[in-house]
Fold:
Amino acid sequence: MVCAACAADVLRPVRRCPACALALGRHFHCPACAASPPAFDHAHTLGDYASPQDQLVLALKFGHALPLAGWLAARLAAGLPAAWAQARQAAPDLLAPIPLSPQRLAARGFNQAWEIARPLARRLGLRADPVLLQRQRDTGSQRALDLAARQVNLRGAFRLTRAARPDGLHVALVDDVMTSGATLHEAAGVLKAHGAARVSVIVALRTP
Structure:
């Protein structure tokens, strides 16, 4: 499915910010988190959303290559226990995918975040809830927006879909790609506003 060379490139160790998963390069502290701390507490990724590994997500999302979701989940599951130990945190109580809007879900036919979260939860022996969060409206493409504009565009985009509150739980949000982190920031804020004690982020790839 994925050649050894591509797999090695995706899994190449890079020193990253434990909060937002940006590659730190020569920085000791993360400039992005210093400027705008995210609502989530920890983030883990396989690698950067850049060539050639970006083709994995593009093939999954737009080419309907659903087996790639299982491959990404397996690689994430292999690295997460060490990442959690390094961050001195326990495994999450619950995994939840970032939801698509009803319009986007109907057009695509599947939520790529759930396609990754489902086998990931199974491999880690964790509970997963595909409908913990609901996207109340289609926020449209955010490619041309800066971080501040993305945050404004996403305000009020998510809500809990069940009466039960995630009181005291450590919830891990799963997505295919984190770009600016605005979507995950908004979703994490909703969870914490409803009692979540901690919110982690697990993404296949992270935009540099």
